[in-house]
Here is the input.
Amino acid sequence: MFSDYFLLAFKNLRKRGLRSWLTILGIFIGIAAVVSLISLGAGLKTAIMGQFGSLSVDKLTIQNKGTGFGPPGSTVVKKLNDHDVKIIEEINGVEVVIKRLLRVANFEYNDASTFSYLVSLPSDKKKLLICYESLGFEIKEGHLLDTGEIGRILIGRKIAEGNQFSKELKVGKKLKINGQEFEIAGILEKTTNAQLDNVVFMFEKDMEDLLSIENEYDLLIVQVEDKDRINEVAEEIERKLREDRNEKIGKESFSVETPLQAFSAVNTILNVINAIIIGIAAISLLVGAIGIANTMYTSVLERTREIGVMKAIGAKNSDIMWLFLQ
Amino acid sequence: MEKPIIELQKVARYYEMGEAIVKALDCIDIVIEKGDFVAIMGPSGSGKSTSMNLIGSLDYPTKGRIFLEKENIGDLDESALAQLRGKKIGFIFQQFNLIPNLTVKENVMLPMLFQEIEKEERERKTKKLLEIVELSDRAEYYPNQISGGQQQRVAIARALANDPQVILADEPTGNLDTKTGNKIMDFLKKLNKEGKTIIMVTHDSDLARNYTNTIYSVRDGKIEYIEKKTGKKWRRISSSKEN
Here is the structure.
């Protein structure tokens, strides 16, 4: 009996071939749109999270507030220094404190010059390895700097391409930084973080000498012993530094950032974007559904006479419903 | 005397048209005995289509009661009524009303499908019915591929599918020329002789007098008169509700 109804319904579909195909096409496009929009959202999330790939979950970043990436001296604040490092190192749960400098410098090569970021690497072997690991470095040419390789540098992929100098940079060549020459030891593979590709890395010692910096740091990277306790450690560092500097809550001259904080900020944005995408998908689904409902409605309307006849010859309401639903 | 097969007791049917109430039928009594060949006659707008709908239990009355073989149709819900109707009454329409995307054979089988009769039985019976209406060679045709007279014969075969006792024909010859019309009427006459009760709605008094044995004349929603044929003579019985 069921198969008989199915046959009847199928005959009807064939009779209205074009409309059936259009409806099927409509449903198909609707579903495809929803699926692709949602996967677009997911893809976007993966891509953006990739930028944070180098951000490890067991490391804290302590920054001078207000420095940002501006040129040195542009903001007058109390810089992080060895005294701070000592305070932090004594805090329970802190494994290693890595001092980092991040400045803008002038690069000269092939009679052309440009400004870009210059970032320090720690001289200590262990800290250096942590640094490499957390930044996710892979070497393209040459080798990663090893401790003691004074006067040599690592350069990011973008710098190496040398668009600014109209000439590609090679391992072994010398790059002039703020007037002093450094030998290129290695060129880094392209990373997921576009900013890192524009950076030149050298040892802390070299950088301090070059820029005449003493006892001040732009970033302190703290590796914690237990990543589950990272928030506690962050709070403790904040409290101790505040005490030491005699500052009020909310008016600190430094900031402690956990990876989760940076993560959650981006996550919020991504969720908003996702919501918008899902909203658009929902609207297209709704439009599709209304279209289908409309087709159903017209096909019922134009067949009222047929339905009437079928009821006259003994069709129950459920019989009619089966014919239309199938 | 046997119990009447269909009985309308003081039946009225009103339609609401916005504020106004149209009294399509106003308190009529119709009794149809088994084996009758009844014509319901009247000009358009007289209420004959409404009475046809009520006799065929396609519609519920506003007032009064309708009995279809002792069953009060007011007590049945729509689907139960559809089932009962499918079993007891066969319909023939002026517009033939065959389902256009089904073949002749499938059209005849449809009422049996709704009564949930097995496929083999349906096939067998359809073959027989198409033989009766002389359309065996058109079984696989679609309605739009055959003539009006043939379509009406398919409709007759479809009306007979569930072996109903009553056949209701609404202007069965209305869309046909006289010759094919007569052929259809001959079929109905034959069915009547075989014991089927036939109720026909028409506005053609000659047709009614030539073929039927009872005529209900309807005018302005009331029965104007009833005529019965005894032997060769027509006798006016009553003008029941005429004031």
User: Anything to note?
Assistant: The longest strand of chain B covers residues 20-32. Residues 166 and 197 of chain B are 5 Å apart (CA to CA).
